[in-house]
Write a structure and sequence with these properties.
- This protein is an all-alpha fold and 451 residues long.
- Helix content is 57%, strand content 2%.
- The protein contains 15 helices and 4 strands.
- It has helices at residues 13-45, 61-70, 82-98, 128-137, 139-149, 153-184, 189-196, 209-212, 214-227, 239-242, 252-277, 298-320, 326-357, 363-382, 440-450; strands at 108-110, 117-119, 402-403, 419-420.
- It has a two-stranded antiparallel ribbon. It has a two-stranded parallel sheet with strand order 3-4.
- The longest helix is centred in the N-terminal third of the chain and has 33 residues, at 13-45.
- It is globular, with a radius of gyration of 29 Å.
- The termini are far apart.
Length: 451
């Protein structure tokens, strides 16, 4: 049964302002913590110490870095469009903050020192998830404006990469969320969280959508990494190719705003994954069996822990995977991720319609499904064609050796062990053929004497 969203529109104005301030402070503190968290986890993975000097366990290192950037020299390139150049960091940072307004951080809580109770969520809408997706996509405009207004070719290339990247992976992300809408029957974040707290059919245990819709969850995790321009998908700021990406010409606090916006986007998409797939602020097993384990401010604790688990995925990928090539990255998004998302969404729609119409109640359906499954398994194991035998080399002494094309994949690469350079494969001849009556040593001796 749909929840009553009117509870969000009857709070006093100062309560709404207090909740907005609380959400902003939580997001800001999480940003500072995430920077420290990433550096410590990567240091642990690489057998290093990481930040440990400023504050206990180095927790104030992020604050020290922010103070350092604040006192750095701020400059504007001569060829830059100064107004757009100045506003671009705000266009990137503000959407990341705004999207956090519809994330439910806990259930009904009591405002301290008063008798007023309110949901620990700034507001909610019937289309809150669409609001988050729309607002988050606005951040790419700030990146494009930053690259264009800098007056630098490298910055512009990084900005254009980012726009193509966000468009590609937002399509897959949106399709991954459609399955959640079909199962929850709502686009409201609070209703989706409440739906995941209802007992499922498996032993009466609440099953989050991450379990019921595992392919959608995996697609969303991949898409959120591409959406936030994080490794191994950090192509807009590929240092080896584009110097520093779209923020090459930025310094001081303007650069710090880009840096903060990246981590704020990480936290926002992690909070969205927690809300849509991991039960939101509800306690996991076995704590959810305890009465009141996620009521009040206890739900905020579970929410933070789940967000940190999703943030660990970002850090884990950065510490283990190298950066992809841009063509590989775009091919993966358009040729694999989006088609798989479309097929999975269609299957979910058919299943939901079948459950409503009672298609799965008869024995004939399951018998037909078993036959189709057996046919697919048989084709998977026995449906492959015979491999053609490899052609033997015509030239003597080159059996088993393959001809080598250094530019076959579009990039110059060295030959492998079973490959032959074109000169030796007689595919390309040198500038001057050797005389038939002279050996290579005699030819080099002649060239030296002529020099």
């Amino acid at each position: 049964m749909p929840m009553d969203l009117d509870v969000f529109f009857h709070d006093p104005w100062w309560v709404v302002a207090l909740k907005a301030l609380f959400a902003f402070v939580v997001l800001l503190l999480l940003t500072l913590f995430t920077i420290w968290y990433e550096r410590r986890v990567v240091a642990f993975m690489q057998h290093r110490i990481g930040p440990n000097m400023n504050g206990p366990f180095g927790l104030l290192q992020s604050l020290a870095d922010g103070m350092k950037l604040m006192f750095k020299e701020d400059f504007t390139p001569t060829a830059a469009d100064k107004v757009v150049f100045m506003l671009a960091p705000f266009v990137v940072a503000i959407p990341a903050i705004t999207a956090f307004a519809v994330i439910p951080m806990a259930g009904i809580v009591r405002v301290p020192f008063t008798d007023i109770t309110t949901p620990l969520q700034v507001t909610d809408l019937p289309v809150s998830v669409l609001f988050i997706v729309a607002v988050a996509s606005m951040g790419v405009y700030g990146i494009v404006l930053a690259g264009w207004s800098s007056g630098s070719t490298y910055s512009l290339l990084g900005a254009l990469r980012s726009s193509a990247q966000v468009i590609s992976y937002e399509v897959a992300m949106g399709l991954a969320l459609v399955a959640v809408f079909l199962y929850a029957g709502s686009l409201s974040t609070s209703e989706i969280v409440a739906k995941q707290a209802e007992p499922a059919t498996v032993f009466g245990v609440p099953l989050w959508f991450a379990v019921q819709l595992l392919p959608s969850f995996i697609i969303y995790l991949i898409s959120m990494v591409g959406e936030t321009n994080r490794a191994p998908f950090d192509l807009p700021e590929a240092e080896g190719e584009l110097v520093g990406g779209f923020h090459t010409e930025y310094s001081s606090m303007r650069f710090a705003m880009f840096f903060m916006a990246e981590y704020m986007n990480m936290i926002t998409v992690s909070a969205l994954a927690t809300t849509l797939f991991l039960g939101g602020f509800h306690a996991p097993l076995p704590f959810n069996l305890l009465p009141g384990a996620d009521s009040g401010y206890w739900g905020f604790l579970w929410f933070l822990l789940k967000v940190l688990v999703v943030l660990f995925i970002f850090v884990w990928l950065r510490g283990t995977l190298p950066r992809l090539r841009y063509d590989q990255f775009m091919r993966f998004g358009w040729r694999w991720l989006i088609p798989i998302s479309l097929v999975w969404t269609l299957m979910i729609a058919i299943v939901r319609l079948g459950q409503r119409e009672g298609w799965f109640a008869g024995r004939g359906f399951w018998l037909g499904a078993a036959v189709v499954f057996a046919v697919l398994v048989g084709l998977a194991f026995f449906g492959g064609g015979k491999e053609e035998p490899a052609k033997e080399a015509d030239e003597p002494g080159r059996e088993g050796m393959s001809e080598f094309d250094a530019f076959a994949g579009g990039y110059p690469v060295p030959p492998m062990g079973d490959q032959v350079l074109p000169e030796f494969a007689q595919v390309l001849s040198g500038e001057e053929d050797l005389a038939p009556d002279r050996s290579p040593d005699e030819e080099r001796t002649k060239e030296g004497s002529e020099a």
